[in-house]
What we know:
This protein is mainly beta. The protein has one domain: N-terminal domain of TfIIb (Single Sheet). It is built from one helix and five strands; from the N terminus they run αβββββ. Strands 1, 2, 3, 4 and 5 form a five-stranded antiparallel β-sheet that branches. The radius of gyration is 10 Å and the shape is globular.
Amino acid sequence: MDHRLLEIIACPVCNGKLYFNQENQELICKPDALAFPLRDGIPVLLENEARSLNLEESKP
Ligand SMILES: [Zn+2]
């Protein structure tokens, strides 16, 4: 995951900053409790492709 890319992409729902989860290879939006997948290293920033975070994962 390119860190410069991470700086320019934003959550499609709230337009907020996303955090990259290295372990799961997902981009996390905490306010929305959504995790966006990466496909071939490309972030898929679509709300209907996102996974809802569970309670444990959405902790601050
Ligand atoms: Zn968001």
